[in-house]
Amino acid sequence: SELPPVSSAARESALVKRLAGRGAEVASEPPSVWFMRQAGRSLPEYRKAREGTSMLESCLMPELVTEITLQPVRRHKVDAGIFFSDIMVPLKLAGIDVSIEPGTGPVLTHPIRSKADIDALPPVDDVYRAALEPIREAVRLTTHELDKKPLIGFCGAPFTVASYMVEGRPSRDHLRTRALMTAEPELWARLAQWVADISGEFLRAQVEAGASAVQLFDSWAGSLAEATYRAHVLPFSRAALDYVRDLDVPRIHFGVGTGHMLSAIHEAGATTVGLDHRTPIPTAIETLPAGTAVQGNLDPALLFSSEEARFAEAARIVREGRTAAGHVVNLGHGVPPETDPQVLTDLVAFIHEQ
Ligand code: 1CP
Q1: What is the CA radius of gyration of the chain?
Q2: Which InterPro entries does the annotation name (predicted)?
């Protein structure tokens, strides 16, 4: 369906300028904040909207995606929406038998275990690009509703997505995946490039339909040594981000526990490096090239601590972020489902007063 083009106000918002490393232009405006997993089980209105519909099914229903994406924006007054979807949606659209099991996470009926499994991966072609239409439609509807606030699009990075494909379900240490990289580097490269292609196309579809920034989630990259990351992962994460490089939107790159390889995370093609709570903001600023923006990094545990402790940390993070080329406040990882939503609403108001 036809909707007016995305508002230029969204693409020129303080949050987007900060992600692009142009924080100086908006230094007098209140800090910008959004939360990873701001939509989801912490919100009663989310649980109600999702009742009776499976996770991956919901992601292909544009009106529902729009509603769920907007819920935390309305409630908490965060400065951006994060597109309601999942890193496994591209697999589903490519025809892979995947589901998201309540209480577990992504589960594949046929995990990747052999060369034959990799040979059998479906092509990334016009049929796949046509299957992305519900995503484009959901982004058009959502950006229209968000009006002047930006929508952040995202996809999973090849290592994190491939780890679910190889392990078949969530895994603590990703042993099979890390073994495949070094035992069969050519097979690994084919799998990682395939994920880069389906995820990159998914990312591009979101930006073309109106998203104003993107985040590449390599949640589990922190389990890798920097040398392994550089040899077997970075080129494919770069390939995924290359799908939107010409579209001139900020590119956030995030992984949990990646403080030991921040430069490599940046070199994969990010304008903005997402930090978990263990990496001090001043250390990141010192390590990364001038002009790089940072995002983060309040410890999610503080959502369950005293308000005094939470606000003190938030104030410190805002203060430290002011010395970066651009800084957007976020948590160090996603909002836990047990979070009291009022805690997030109050936290956003406090951050906006800084
Ligand atoms: O039961 C439910 O309601 C489903 C829970 C849920 C939700 C709300 C899943 C299953 N995915 C999502 C949405 C989702 N997933 C978003 C939406 C936007 C937002 O942030 O508000 C995003 C960005 C993701 C991305 C995602 N999915 C990541 C990367 C981010 C991260 O948290 O590290 C990962 C690793 C996944 C896999 C996944 N999907 C769902 C779960 C529970 C998991 C993690 C499983 C595991 O622990 O390995």
Answers
A1: 19
A2: UROD/MetE-like_sf (IPR038071), Uroporphyrinogen_deCO2ase_HemE (IPR006361), Uroporphyrinogen_deCOase (IPR000257)
Peptide bond into 330 cis (omega under 30): no
Substitution site in 41, 54, 67, 86 for ligand 1 pocket (most atoms within 8 Å of beta carbon)? 86
- Domain extents for the chain? 8-353
Ligand 1 centroid vs 161 CA: distance in angstroms?
12
SS3 283: helix
Does ligand 1 come within 6 angstroms of the Cβ of 39?
Answer: yes
Q: Is 94 in the pocket of ligand 1 (CB under 6 A)?
A: no
Residue 128: active-site member? no
The CATH topology of domain 8-353 is TIM Barrel (3.20.20)
Contact 226, 260 (CB under 8 A): yes
How many other C-beta atoms can be found within 10 angstroms of the C-beta atom of residue 191?
24
- Distance (Å, rounded) from C-alpha 123 to C-alpha 107? 21
pLDDT, one tens digit per residue, over 67-125 is: 999 999 999 999 999 999 999 999 999 999 999 999 999 999 999 999 999 999 999 99
Please write the tens of the pLDDT for every residue from 161-181: 999 999 999 999 999 999 999
pLDDT (tens digit per residue) in 185-234: 999 999 999 999 999 999 999 999 999 999 999 999 999 999 999 999 99
What ipTM describes this predicted complex? Answer: 0.93
Region of 313 (left: φ > 0; alpha: ψ -120 to 50; beta: rest) is alpha
Q: Report the predicted TM-score, pTM, of the whole model to 2 decimal places.
A: 0.96
Where are the extended beta strands (E) located within the chain? Answer: 81-82, 98-101, 105-108, 151-156, 213-217, 251-254, 272-274, 293-295, 327-328
Residue 217 alpha carbon, nearest atom of ligand 1: 29
Comparing C-alpha atoms, which of 299, 227, 217 is closest to residue 261? 227
User: Could you tell me which residues are beta bridge partners of residue 331?
Assistant: 298
